Amino acid sequence: MIRTIEWTGSAVVMLDQRLLPAQEIHQTCNDFREVAEAIRAMVIRGAPAIGIAAAMGIALGVKKAVASTVQELDPQFEKICNVIAGARPTAVNLFWAVERMKEVYRRSCAGGVEAVRAALVREAEAMHDEDIRANREIGRLGQALIADGARVLTHCNAGALATAGYGTALGVIRAAVEAGKHIQVYADETRPFLQGARLTAWELQKDNIPVTVITDGMAGHFMQLRRIDCVIVGADRIAANGDVANKIGTYSVAVLAKENGLPFLVAAPTSTLDLTIPDGSYIAIEERDPEEVRKLQGVLITSEHTAVANPAFDVTPNRYITAIVTERGVARPPYLQSLQALVAEDK
């Protein structure tokens, strides 16, 4: 299994996803600021993986903080959390991880600084392992929705690279193959960062799962020709009503799937649910550097001063979504009730 992120005891090591598939190079972060920058610069990306990175970054920051008492540590901890939380705005897993680490800090601070450090490291490692288990359960539940022989379209990368391991949308595909099903994957290239072309295809090829890369504008053509049977994607934030924020271009694919009568599935852990917001209009959409669009691998593909808009995500309204697969079960419309029921089961 691809190792996306690891805690070494004194550093956080990430597979640099900006360099794939040409180079497999791991970046070592020795400071929480380096972890935050790695998240911002997309060394690591994908909502679940960002959450794990956030937790490990906080644990690393506290481990290396100079403090002999909790009172001395308190302002440093607050700064560490703020820096990590400011890395990217859309993926709710980042903020979920920060809040979870804050709760561990509050519970352990009575034991002193060393107790806090140990507790935060344990929590970050536990979150890593929990994510892999959740992904495997998502795969087990989701593969039941994929027919043998299905031709599946996916957008962006929701695989092992986007998680602690195994993947969400690609985890469903992996689980279907492990169950003996014959699956053919179409991967949208996913402009402008090319996560589908660079990352999804690379992952699936490593697992010997048949994959064909298509440009984003080709999805409707293949649906119209009945060469795609269903769509499955990941998510960066899911509102209480089932609206889903995912990589830019997901909304277009969902509309095309609806027009062509194809199931549109979302696979995500419950840590991606944000039931505090009623619908997708409350989701902050990250606007990234225009140079990511103007250039391809550092080479200008527009004129230097061309105006560029570069939103990283869009929101797919719940009416286009057939089902949302989580580790706690499969939610179907009406999502206000079904998503709340999944979370309530844990209480």
Structure, briefly:
The chain is of the alpha/beta class. It has helices at residues 32-40, 47-64, 70-85, 92-108, 113-143, 169-178, 195-206, 219-224, 250-259, 291-294, 335-344; strands at residues 5-7, 12-15, 26-29, 151-154, 184-188, 211-214, 230-233, 237-239, 244-247, 264-267, 273-274, 295-296, 299-300, 313-316, 323-326, 329-331.
Provide the descriptors you would attach to this structure in a database record.
7-stranded mixed sheet, single chain, alpha/beta, 2 domains, Four Helix Bundle (Hemerythrin (Met), subunit A), 347 residues, 4-stranded mixed sheet, Rossmann fold
Count of separate DSSP helical elements = 11
Tell me about the largest β-sheet: 7 strands, mixed
- The CATH homologous superfamily of the largest domain: Translation initiation factor eif-2b, domain 2
Based on the structure given, which CATH architecture of the largest domain is correct? 3-Layer(aba) Sandwich
Low-confidence stretches: none
Q: How many β-strands, per DSSP?
A: 16
**According to CATH, what is the topology of the largest domain?**
Rossmann fold
Shape: globular
Percentage beta strand: 15-25%
The CATH C-level class name of the largest domain: Alpha Beta
The span between the termini is 32 Å
Helix proportion of residues, in percent?
A: 40-55%
Radius of gyration: 20 Å
Give the overall pLDDT as a whole number.
97
Strand arrangement across the biggest beta sheet = 6-5-4-7-10-15-16
Return the domain count. Answer: 2
In N-to-C order, the SSE pattern is: EEEHHHHHEHEHEHEEEHEEHEEEEEH
Query: What is the SS-derived class?
Result: alpha/beta
